[in-house]
Structure formats: structure tokens, C-alpha cells
Amino acid sequence: MHRFYVKDIREADGSIEISGSDVNHIVNVLRLGSGDEITVSDGSSREYLCRISAVTDDEKVVADIEDITDS
Q1: Quick one: 67 exposed, middle or buried, by C-beta within 10 A (0-12, 13-18, 19+)?
Q2: 19-22 contacts: CB < 8 A, separation 24 or more?
Q3: In what order do the strands lie in the sheet with 2-5?
Q4: How far apart are CA 60 and CA 69, in angstroms?
Q5: Contact, 63 vs 38, CB < 8 A?
Q6: Which of 10, 69, 21 shows the shortest CA–CA distance to 45?
Q7: Three-class SS of residue 49?
Q8: How far apart (Å, rounded) are the C-alpha atoms in residues 24 and 27?
Q9: Taking a C-beta distance cutoff of 8 angstroms, is the pair 47, 71 a contact?
Q10: What is the full per-residue pLDDT of the chain (71 aa) written as tens digits?
């Protein structure tokens, strides 16, 4: 499973937005899209199992949080 780092994760709405160079990597290099699973880390002790729900026109990947683990 592919793992990405997102500095400011806001989990209030149940999803995570990924922006910047990771979007190009997710969409064009790995060719991931809606329905694919990824792991997102906040850089401390939390990891989020997510499923990509959308790739927006303003170059963001939106991923719905499916599970959260503290390591």
C-alpha cells in the first residue's frame, strides 16, 4: 500500500486533502484514482487508512478516512 505524509490533517469531516507534488505522484506516476486505498501519516504517531474519493480540478486528492491507528 502506498504511504503519504500530510502535515496538517483535519479529520473532522472524515476526509483528508492531499495537495502539492504528491498529487502528481498519486495520479500520474502511480495512476491511482477513486476507490484506491492509501495510507496517510501525520508525521507523529497516527496513521490513516484512506480510500481516494476524488481528484479535484484544483489539483487535490480527497481521501475518505476508513481507519485510524496510533503507533
Answers
A1: exposed
A2: 19/59, 19/60, 19/61, 22/61
A3: 2-5, 37-41, 46-55, 61-70, 15-18
A4: 24
A5: yes
A6: 69
A7: strand
A8: 5
A9: yes
A10: 899 999 888 776 899 999 999 999 999 999 999 999 999 998 888 899 999 999 998 999 999 999 999 97
